[in-house]
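Example 3.2
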Amino acid sequence: MQRRSHSNDEGWLLSYADLITNLLIFFAMLLAAAEVNRTKMQQITEGLTGVEQPASLSSIQEEIEEKIVAEGLQEMIRTDLTDDGLKLSLNSGLMFDSGSAEIRSDNEQILDHMLQTLVPYADRYGFAVEGHTDATPIGLGSSYPSNWELSTGRANAVRSRLELVGVERGRIRVEGYADTIALPEAELEGLTETERLARHRRVIVRIY
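Structure, written as tokens:
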């Protein structure tokens, strides 16, 4: 009696196992790509192609930096390209009076002019306006009970200007952090205590 061979009957298992392995690798790659933020993806694309994308965050940063230098606003506005997006940090000490969330009238046009740079990209990116303060408690003369309300009020003031120049409100969110997010020590090195506190008082427009 001839013994039945199982080698051909079970050969499909090898192909099936290969298929499952390839599918697992494919989904792992999809998951990894989903967890990479937009800034990293743009940097990877530019690194592979050698071409800077016209609407990338790095190109927007260059455009804004050119305006900052041309108009001498280095003390008022600074930019940082991070994993969380492109950050425009506004010096609250120059943009607002102490304890106030009302933008100084002589700075409104300057701010609007800078924010208008972002309008052409408003259909592609989201915008978060972050309010930050130093750790000094609110004084008795302020209309805000704490730094929480002050940071949120200042962020809302900048949000209003962002809407005014043409960014849809549905693409903006407001975040108030008071003094809960300290700047990295590397950014404060060499500064006096007064300068360190001033650097913490900021409103950030983050494009992501």
